[in-house]
Design brief:
alpha/beta, Aconitase, domain 3, Aconitase, domain 4, 7-stranded mixed sheet, 5-stranded parallel sheet, 18 helices, 26% helix
């Protein structure tokens, strides 16, 4: 078996497992954040569910640790009250990013399983553990049952050949990989990375690469354990762990041999993490701000790299640099090492540990038109504010902040670039649910949206994430998708959406599914879905199906045509032409959840 197959098999009642098997997976640690946590509690209370094992259940308040938004503050307080009543540990606003806390505190370990409302919970692949971001219903089910259903993914093997260039950071490695694989070539796969140089990767290196598996569409990016990793984990946690590797005869659907010696310093251009290019193509691009932090680059090694650049220098006039350590322990270590002092003397704003701007937090957001260079994992339009975001390594962000434009540490000018005058002077409420028979055949008018990689920010923007009532969500559907901002006003109950690859890429937000339920959309057809989005839709009883584009083309469907879709047979009929084609029908688990009115 591959690594993920071994872990899933060890946590299920099936031995062995293979790709496509659907099994219940026991979860060692089950987390909810302040983003999504209140909805998890609401789901539990609305359905009369209790906690299976409080010892394995935690809250992490990392999205907005300052509680600077009233709805965040209310949701945090609501979750604290629930935690007190049920004996659940809370890693509160003084602690840091939940996934990092889980690793550093031994809540996850090689071979273990972890789920969270954090779409980057697959960061656990860094230590050869199973981690998954899931929606509110999934996490509620995990808290109540101690397990979740999961479809075993096929595995892909990537061999990184050659020597790692001396100046190449882990962020550069993953941006190079994103430039090769894009947002959907690894969609739905478990990816294992091997190579002589990868054996030397530190925990921080592995975390940076694994944390961007979500942006590549992968279920998870796994590194087999190495002696140096096990030693590092023992130093951090005080615990000894066993190695986790794939079987010698493990079966991979695809294998890629990639020459890492040809990798270069990269940036992701605004809009998409996979729109990557050599830094030479954007060198000298004027910036307004910089951000160093997030679950991708908030470790002590990342702060040291930034401090090495900033020592004895100042952030350029008019430029703002914000730095947010991943955890409070890292913050304290940075203070003990004098790193915080270097940051302050350079004119940096240093905030308390957490996710910061990545999750609409209080630090790291940018304004309309603002150009930011960031170490975050996402730069979708509107994700880190209303400006433009480039992604790069901590050293490049620090150097750019000093220069006033995008550059590398070896090409910082003696004088920074200056700006030219521009001439521009409750949280939750109980909701009763009534179970009704679900139709297995629907009919409606078609909306064709010919785009790949429509992410959850385009479907349901993060500025609306505090909404918990489904009936309020529909009005905001697609209002961040160019060309379809008026969708919610024009769509009618029963309409059918047809789109392309990787629909629902990005975050774990349930609202990106629930907004369609709110509008009464009868089903969504796509070539493929983001892994978390697919689960969220099935669990919410939102009908989704996949199709082969060559086959669907035979139906000659145009926007506005009326079609009929049969979930049991997978037959689609164009009622305008009478032509029929075969879609991928509901599978048994999907139909069972659909007929139940949802997972819960």
């Amino acid at each position: 078996m591959t690594i993920i197959e071994k872990i899933i098999s060890a946590h299920s009642n099936q031995q062995p497992v293979k790709p496509g098997d659907i099994v219940d997976v026991a979860i060692d640690t089950r987390a909810a954040r302040d983003f999504g946590g209140a909805n998890v509690v609401k789901n539990l209370l609305d359905n009369g569910l209790t906690i299976a094992d409080p010892r394995k259940t935690i809250f992490t308040f990392d999205c907005n640790p300052g509680g600077s938004d009233q709805k965040y503050a209310a949701n945090q307080h609501y979750c604290r009250q629930y935690a007190r009543d049920n004996g659940i540990r809370v890693y509160d606003v003084d602690a840091g990013i939940g996934t990092h806390l889980a690793i550093d505190n031994g809540l996850t370990w090689p071979g273990s399983t972890f789920v969270s409302t954090d779409s980057h919970a697959n960061i656990m692949g860094a230590i050869s553990a199973f981690g998954q971001g899931m929606g509110d219903q999934d996490i509620a089910a995990a808290w109540a049952k101690g397990a979740v259903w999961f479809k075993v993914p096929a595995s892909v093997k990537i061999n990184l050949m050659g020597k790692r260039p001396a100046t190449l950071t882990a962020k550069d490695v993953v941006l190079n990989l994103l430039s090769i694989f894009g947002a959907n070539k690894l969609l739905g796969y478990s990816v294992e990375i091997y190579g002589e140089e990868t054996e030397k990767f530190t925990l921080a290196d592995r975390i940076t690469i694994s944390s961007m598996g979500t942006e590549m569409g992968a279920i998870i990016i796994l590194f087999p354990t190495s002696p140096s990793l096990l030693q590092e984990l023992k130093r951090i946690t005080g615990k000894e762990y066993q190695s986790v590797t794939a079987s010698a005869n493990a079966v991979y659907e695809k294998t890629f041999d990639i020459d890492m010696s040809k990798f270069v310093t990269m940036v992701a251009k605004p809009g998409h993490p996979h729109d990557d290019a050599s830094i030479e193509t954007v060198r000298n691009q004027k910036i307004d701000s910089g951000f160093i932090g997030s679950c991708t680059n908030g470790r002590i090694e990342d702060l040291r790299a930034a401090a090495a650049v900033l020592s004895g220098r100042k952030v350029a006039p008019g430029v703002v640099l914000k730095i947010v350590p991943a955890t409070d322990a890292i913050w304290t270590q940075a203070m003990d090492e004098g790193i915080i002092q270097i940051f302050k003397e350079a004119g940096v704003m240093v905030s308390n540990a957490g996710c910061a701007g990545c999750a609409a937090g209080q630090v790291g957001q940018n304004g309309p038109g603002e150009v930011t260079i960031s170490t975050g994992n996402r730069n979708f339009e509107g994700k880190q504010g209303k400006g433009y975001v480039y992604l790069a390594s901590p050293a490049v962000v620090a150097a750019s902040a000093v220069a006033g434009f995008i550059t590398t540490p070896d090409q910082i000018p003696d004088k920074p670039a200056l700006f030219s005058p521009s001439g521009n002077t409750s949280p939750v409420a109980r909701q009763e649910k009534i179970k009704v028979a679900k139709p297995t055949e629907v009919e409606g008018n078609v909306w064709i949206i010919p785009k790949d990689d429509i992410d959850t920010d385009m479907i349901f923007h993060n500025r609306y994430l505090t909404i918990t009532e489904i009936r309020e969500m529909g009005q905001y559907t697609f209002d961040n998708l160019k060309g379809f901002e008026d969708f919610a006003r024009k769509a009618n109950p029963g309409d059918i959406v047809i789109t392309q690859k990787n629909f629902g890429a990005g975050s774990s937000r349930q609202q990106a599914v629930d907004c369609f339920l709110s509008l009464g959309i009868s089903c969504i057809l796509a070539e493929s879905y983001g892994a978390i989005y697919e689960r969220n839709a099935i669990n919410a009883a939102m009908p989704i199906l996949t199709y082969n584009p060559e086959i669907l083309a035979q139906a000659e469907i145009e926007s506005g045509d009326r079609v009929k879709v049969d979930f049991i047979s997978g037959i689609l009929t164009n009622l305008k032409t009478g032509k029929t084609v075969q879609l991928d029908k509901f599978y048994d688990a999907q139909m069972a959840i659909y007929q139940n009115g949802g997972l819960l």
